[in-house]
Design a protein that fits this description.
Layout: E1 15-22, E2 25-27, E3 32-33, E4 36-37, E5 48-52, E6 58-64, E7 74-80, E8 87-90, E9 95-98, E10 104-112, E11 124-131, H1 138-215
Parallel strand pairs: 5-11
Antiparallel strand pairs: 1-2, 1-6, 3-4, 6-9, 7-8, 7-10, 10-11
Length: about 220
């Protein structure tokens, strides 16, 4: 046995997610959360999870399956779509916690170091989709737009009907005024004609009397 002999091992340990907590509750395969099953298989074999908007507080534990140098492993993680830089941690805090994420699609990436404190190529990746509440969905927004347009159109029709009634009322008032004016003019002319007739009648009577006098 040569104590100076050292064989290079090319084995690269796996980096996996070990536990999932949502709203401070550990989630295992088959567990129900808000009436639905969140995990159908172990989190270490899961590539994607969907969370509701009310479930956007979660923690993911991770571990490098290196049983030789497990206590000296360093980690870093980043949530793509939210973090701009890496978060660094170690074996004592091998977890990532996020709270109050906006709805959208994210990817949690975790990396670990080897015996030489070099970042290994293998990554643990998990796609996380935070489903928006119904009032933030495109269908609800389209429904709001439709309702708003319907109300605006209904209000416009009501205003148009009111204005049309006002116009009709003004037309009727103008027509009544014209009719009244014409009736007054007609009454004045009738009065003039009546006076003329009476005057002519008086003249005829006078002429008749003159004729009778002449005959006499």
């Amino acid at each position: 046995f040569n104590p100076n002999f050292r064989r290079n091992i090319s084995y690269e340990p796996s980096l996996v997610f070990t536990d999932l907590f949502v709203m401070d509750k550990i989630i295992t395969p088959g567990d129900t959360l808000n009436g639905r099953v969140l995990l159908t298989k172990n989190i270490s074999n899961t590539n994607k999870i969907d969370l509701k908007y009310s479930e956007n507080i979660f923690t993911l534990n991770f571990a490098l399956l290196d049983y030789v140098n497990s206590k000296a492993v360093d980690y870093r993680y980043k949530l793509e779509g939210f973090d701009s830089d890496w978060h660094y941690t170690n074996i004592r805090k091998a977890f990532a916690t996020y709270t109050n994420l906006d709805s959208g699609n994210y990817t949690l990436i975790v990396e670990a170091t080897d015996n030489n404190k070099q970042w290994i190529a293998h990554q643990a990746r998990l796609e996380i989709r935070v489903v928006p509440p119904f009032w933030r969905t495109i269908w609800f927004k389209l429904l709001l737009i439709f309702v708003f347009c319907s109300l605006a159109y209904s209000f416009y029709r009501q205003e148009l009907a009111v204005k049309q009634k006002e116009v009709e009322k003004l037309k009727n008032e103008k027509l009544q005024a014209e009719i009244k004016t014409k009736e007054e003019i007609l009454a004045a002319r009738n009065s003039e004609l009546t006076s003329s007739v009476v005057h002519l009648s008086n003249k005829n009577e006078i002429l008749q009397e003159i004729k009778r006098d002449l005959r006499s």
